[in-house]
Amino acid sequence: MKHSYMKSMVVACLATLSFIGFNATATAATNYKVVKGDSLWKLGKRYSVTIDDIKN
């Protein structure tokens, strides 16, 4: 019985964490020196971020 209870608790915890984890966003600060010819679109493509992310 104790094994079954523990297994149920682990499954419940993993389910809860998976729902929470999908809503979390990672933030990372990266410094970049703008050079002639740069555009928000090019920087977004290079670093896989949106233009709104760059503006913020």
Topology:
Blueprint: H1 2-23, H2 40-47, H3 51-55
**Approximately how much beta-strand content do the residues carry?**
under 5%
Order of helices and strands: HHH
Mean pLDDT: 74
Shape: rod-shaped
Q: Give the total of domains.
A: 1
Structure notes:
This protein is mainly α and 56 residues long. The protein has one domain (2-55). It contains three helices and no strands. It has helices at 2-23, 40-47, 51-55. The longest helix is centred in the first third of the chain and has 22 residues, at 2-23. The model has no long low-confidence stretch (mean pLDDT 74).
Short description:
With 56 residues, the chain is mainly alpha-helical. It contains three helices and no strands. 62% of the residues lie in helices and 0% in strands.
Keywords:
0% strand, 56 residues, mainly alpha
